[in-house]
Design a protein that fits this description.
It is a single chain. Helices cover 6% and strands 39% of the residues. The protein contains two helices and 13 strands, in the order ββββαβββββββββα.
Length: 185
Amino acid sequence: MKITETELPGVYLITPTIFEDNRGWFMETYSKRVIKKDIGIDINFVQQNYSYSRYKGTLRGLHFQNNPMAQTKLVRCIRGRIFDVVVDIRKKSPTYLKWISVELSEENKTQILIPKGFAHGFLTLTDNVEVQYEVDEFYSKEHDRSIRFDDPDIGINWSIKDPILSDKDKNAPFLKDSDCNFIYS
């Protein structure tokens, strides 16, 4: 397993080692021991989520859960390809409002580890996309939040003019108008 920190401190790309033979392949997608040893994070995942997006151009996000139900996420694309985005939304952070993007796909099998205090979203690059992710806190409707994917203060270049959005994402506030409660310490 190869672990690489991104330009956003605390956000990591995890590329599994693939063991392949004539039957197919095997990979370890998560190891608590490796994550704790290599990056010093002790994560206890409590819920696994799975999404299916029928059409290319579907945009999901930007999502997060406010404290005290904030979530660390380990995200991977198991079918198709996605343009995955992570945004630092921790007030007073040296990287506040900075974002990174990475392509996750069934081919590259790369995953992204997203800590609490970051918003997450993705755009499907193919039809029939399946995304699976683990979280270390249960879903809480009361703490569930969205911010606009096209927030000008963040300035993400999604490379699409008219994405397919849920009503929740169409009506999401800009970050400056949200009740996001993350503060960098």
